[in-house]
């Protein structure tokens, strides 16, 4: 009986049926073309060959390596090498040009800035912030106030050897702990803090003895900060007359500095970053705000 | 279905019955016969025009002056540019391509609503190339009967030679299909020279190889199988069509009952019903997909109209009215049988809707193309820090500015800021002209990203001020502006 139903042709569609029938619903037999089936079998064969040739089957602590020995990490290394190769022309130009020459060449300058930005994110952002905005004790690199100078050469020097770093070529010079080491009395510290605030036009405490403060300043501070408090880049002594304050402009913060001293550290990058990267970083940092105070 | 078998449970089904059902359909070799007539002529003309455009378009020159290629149509992938005669498209303007695709899809829909599978029958590359390959086959191996006879006979030296020549010509056509394809992606004459002297880049040979393979396989071997099994368009069209759409239709109101010329003549003389169809099977013989149009509208039929030509040539010979097979609708065939008037309605909601959208999308594209500017300014405010206090107390904001110069020569632009009193604008690494303006120089057909610092000397700025960056083309005074904000403590 089943054989007979198989032979049956559906009247509406003119298609033979498979002989399967459920509740009078019959299944039409619309077979696939032969080439389609061959293509399908070919994909199965392909998957087997692929599994043999490439890493595929996970094992307990490793996986089958495949006969071709292909490895995704090696593929990345090849891509990276290709990228380095592609950039080698510009990188070589960057290495052989001076900072000034690079800045005069718009194409090279843009390349250096891009590389510097990436390197800044990797190395500098933890302290100076992603955009170089700085934080309390970490200078803002976008402004025009440079403790150790904002020219290209000075920035490069600071990046390369650091500040109060392990390198003997780094910048040195600290703010002494006048209070803690007994050089100044509490009253002197209060007076000179008020005087320092007055240098940049900030309001002072009522009854502050600015004259005494000025005397204390002349005796203890002017050697580094200058007789007018204008600062001295050779020693990294900040300009006390401008609107930029590394640690803060309030009297308590200034007194804290006078009491305990200040001496933030910028590490040396010489030997940790190659010369080209340091160049790129210099140009990037310089482009953020750059150059000397007006 | 009255004598349908009683329902069987799964367990009771005879497993042998499933085994006997064929797993696959063996391919039925199709030998389309040569035909002459109006639709065959239309198809030759369309074939010549479409293939002519495809093969020769890359060689058309279009002078754009220096700094740009002089090829009328060029997809310049390395430089991310697309040239189409006087239009140049940048990657950020890819919505023009989207618009074109929308127009193309709607045009297909409209064609379908008016006259069915016009695309399939006349314009589709699969149809055009298969038609060309059939023409070569017919030219070398002979017409339908000859080819059928040769395939049945044992292979002779002559047959092998003919088949060899056929495959050689097919491969040559396929090779040129791939060859023309790559010419759209590089300067055509240069690339032809490089290909001929084996100096072209490897990727060009790879693409020629891929397209040679696909053309040779799809037009030489797969043919109607592509339309029946691989292409989604027949299925989509089935959902798009309606009863008013014209289709290649066998007018069974006139054709049935079928019979020989003599028999039907006799019937007619006796005043008995007699059809015009004499069962000569010419419509089946010429069909490139091997269907019998007399079975009605079907998925395999690409509606190329060749059966109309074949039938008309027979109708002429037996002196019966033409167009037994014609562009018609099933609805009208039924109407005629019932003695009702025919309904032909090209203008209807569906066609108006498609035409309307085509008009709207087309107008939007033309308007935006006509109004688009050749300079483009994008400004992005620094996120960190939002503002910087300088040593003299003034406030500075940093911006990343990108200027796109779509002109084909180098341009100098002055950038300024409006909406902020006493604002000073510095371009890092940029120059300042004699009038004190900050200048950005952008090369021909390029973009330039610059860092721009805006400083306000008065420190009493509100926390946020809306400002306008204004870019002025110094050569012709064209201006573009983009708004952003100036942030302060």
Automatic annotation (TrEMBL), chain A:
Pathway: Energy metabolism; oxidative phosphorylation. The chain crosses the membrane at residues 35-57. The keyword Metal-binding applies. It is found in: Cell inner membrane. SUPFAM superfamilies: Cytochrome c (SSF46626). Its main location: membrane. Residues 111-200, 208-289 form the Cytochrome c domain. PROSITE patterns: CYTC. Heme c 2 binds at residues 175, 221, 224-225. One of its GO terms (biological process) is oxidative phosphorylation. Heme c 1 binds at residues 124, 127-128, 266. InterPro entries: CcoP_N, CcoP_N_sf, Cyt_c-like_dom, Cyt_c-like_dom_sf, Cyt_C_IC, Cyt_c_oxidase_cbb3_su3, Cytochrome_c_Oxidase_Subunit. Component of the cbb3-type cytochrome c oxidase at least composed of FixN, FixO, FixQ and FixP. This is Cbb3-type cytochrome c oxidase subunit. It comes from Microvirga flocculans.
From TrEMBL, chain B:
Residues 268-296 form the 4Fe-4S ferredoxin-type domain. The chain crosses the membrane at residues 41-60, 94-115, 168-186, 198-219, 352-371. InterPro entries: 4Fe4S_Fe-S-bd (IPR017896), 4Fe4S_Fe_S_CS (IPR017900), Cyt_c_oxidase_cbb3_FixG (IPR014116), Electron_Trans/Redox (IPR051684), FixG_C (IPR032879), Ig-like_fold (IPR013783). GO terms for molecular function: 4 iron, 4 sulfur cluster binding; metal ion binding. The keyword Iron applies. It comes from the Bacteria. GO terms for cellular component: plasma membrane. Keywords: 4Fe-4S, Electron transport, Iron, Iron-sulfur, Membrane, Metal-binding, Transmembrane, Transmembrane helix, Transport. NCBIfam families: ccoG_rdxA_fixG. This is Cytochrome c oxidase accessory protein FixG. It comes from Microvirga flocculans.
